[in-house]
Amino acid sequence: MGLLTPQKSSFAPPTLLYQLIYHPLTTWFAFLHYLILYLRGRPYVPPKNKVPIRVVCLSDTHSKMPPTSIPKGDLLIHAGDLTNNGTLNSIQQSIDWLKTLQKPWPGSADGFRHIVVVAGNHDSYFDERSRSFHDTKNTRRTLDWGKIHYLQHSGVTLPFPDGRELKVHGAPQIPRCGGNEFAFQYTRGQDAWSNTIPDDVDVLITHNPPKWHLDIPENGGMGDEFELQEVWRVKPTLHAFGHVHSGYGKEPVWWDEGQKSWEEFLACAYNKPAGTTASQRLPLTELVDPQIWMLGVKCLVADVRGMLWNRLWGGARQGGYMVNGALTYQTTSKLLNKPKVVDL
Ligand SMILES: *[C@@H]1O[C@H](CO)[C@@H](O)[C@H](O)[C@H]1NC(C)=O
């Protein structure tokens, strides 16, 4: 892959040099936007006088076991793509590995209190339309989940110490990105999200990223705009997902004017005719685009106001986090990324 050509696969990240040349303003405004968010501090603070609930997020393990140990915590989330081939056997193998994480840690009385799993597009067995012929024939065999919660357009309320509870909801659907062996696909552009998630959910688990967050938008991205709209309506404290390995990371979300403007900025900067990329324009074109400048400045002004509100005037911290917990590193098949940890 050349330094200046766009990435060949929608799942590979563009190089920094490519970004600097074809998205100079995006690169610069992203740096400032995330710097201000960092200075603003934590978007969410666990309730006072209560033990925080530690959530460990992972996804996209693709039938491999992470080479390093999983951090300790109260709740473990797997946001899909447990397997590669999605057969009942391979899914059961991954479930059996997850079950080992419920056993007490050495020298401790506890393991994870709860484990919650959502399916990914590779986990074909879960969707009858994509189930393998072999699995369709053998209907007598089923999965043995033990105490693990599997969520598919469903939710569960989990108890934690100090009388705390988390309301968790899981949804596996993704915009089509492969053949009929992939599970839970819908046609891109179709609204598969509006009013599908209860609005009092604390933790939302999907396989697909919402538009503009922890995704690779250069070739259109996998993130879904209807999903983003639904997430804005529900405003979960934690939204955990995966699918786009190169989008791995954790970011604060404030559900305010700054975030709205940042999403508008990206929509403008990546608004190119379908099937084309920024490199089909002249280099540095962004620099002379008044609309991109205007939206970037609008976002930074809103970000600074938000920061002052929290830092000087003691505004409430009512935001949360988005986490892309893909353990598979970029377009390799190695689990080099570490699980992400969030305290709620
Ligand atoms: C599917 O993957 C599992 C786990 O990696 C493997 O054991 C199994 O042989 C694979 N099955 C097929 C049909 O490829």
What distinguishing features does this structure have?
344 residues; Purple Acid Phosphatase, chain A, domain 2; 6-stranded mixed sheet; 13 strands; alpha/beta
Order of helices and strands: HHEEHEHEEEEEEHEEHHEE
User: Which superfamily, in CATH terms, is the homologous superfamily?
Assistant: Metallo-dependent phosphatases
With helices defined by DSSP (H or I, 4 residues minimum), what is the helix count? 7
Gyration radius (Cα, Å) is 21 Å
Spatial strand sequence of the major β-sheet: 5-6-9-10-12-11
CATH topology: Purple Acid Phosphatase, chain A, domain 2
Strand content: 15-25%
Oligomer: single chain
Q: Main beta sheet: strand number and arrangement?
A: 6 strands, mixed
InterPro entries: Calcineurin-like_PHP (IPR004843), Metallo-depent_PP-like (IPR029052), UPF0046_metallophosphoest (IPR051693)
Protein name: Calcineurin-like phosphoesterase domain-containing protein
GO molecular function, one term: hydrolase activity
Domain Calcineurin-like phosphoesterase: 71-246
Short description:
With 344 residues, the chain is α/β, with parallel strands linked by helices. The protein has seven helices and 13 strands. The structure holds 2-acetamido-2-deoxy-beta-D-glucopyranose.
